[in-house]
Amino acid sequence: MNVLLQISDPHFGTERPQILQALCELVRQQQPGVLVLSGDITQRARRAQFDAAQRFVRELAIPQVLALPGNHDIPLFNLWRRLFDPYAGFRRAFGHQLEPVLDTPDLLAIAVKTTRRRRHCDGEVSPAQVERVASRLRQAQPRQLRVVVTHQPVDVPRAQDEHDLLHGHAEAAQTWVEAGADLLMGGHIHLPFVRPLQQRFAALKRRAWCVQAGTAVSARVRAEAPNSVNLLRYAGGLPPRCVVERWDHTVATGHFECVQRDDLAVQRS
Predict the structure, then answer these.
(1) How many CB atoms lie under 10 A from the CB of residue 225?
(2) pTM of structure
(3) Is residue 51 classed exposed, middle or buried when 0-12, 13-18 and 19+ CB atoms within 10 A define those classes?
(4) Angstrom distance (rounded) from CA 212 to CA 200
């Protein structure tokens, strides 16, 4: 099976060297072919932080990279840059595409830029973005696993996290799933989970999942969630196969270890 590594919210500038080393070891062991960076790559969008993130991604040497900015990847204190060139640092480190698409025989992964210069923390998706992504999903091949990546989540399992939901999440999630999306991936809240989207959107006629990653390497961990990444194992077919593994860093061993495995039944009609 193909292997995709999801790294979210590394917040370079707050990274922990021992976690970086452990993540490098995991990559050497698992040999993912795709890296998804689902936002908040830096802590304060500073040049040195983007440089450190870029060096680390190069060190991982994963063949294909899909990266999108999070709210922390826009300058907070440099108001001129935030207003007139908010993504300059991201573009210099990770390329000019803010909404890249990865299209392979077994995978269609679509990134959606949900950050806005006028919003400090919250994310937003526009009707034009919703329709653009849905149109691309409708063109996917049946054997492809179809993944949409945002920074802010389209679903949360706990009431205290509802305020972090992506603005426009209901229309976006339902439209994308009906257009063929299998997984909606994100980060932002540093809380890893896999959850059927029908638990929030009961009217959905297709099975699909929200797949959230924790903070990969930063010191900004929640009490209930250590440093964490996701590995997706997928294979094309009718229907495609997909297994999502959550790998947490364990202090006792100093390594990332698989703590949860979800075998997702991808639907094709």
Answers:
(1) 16
(2) 0.96
(3) middle
(4) 15
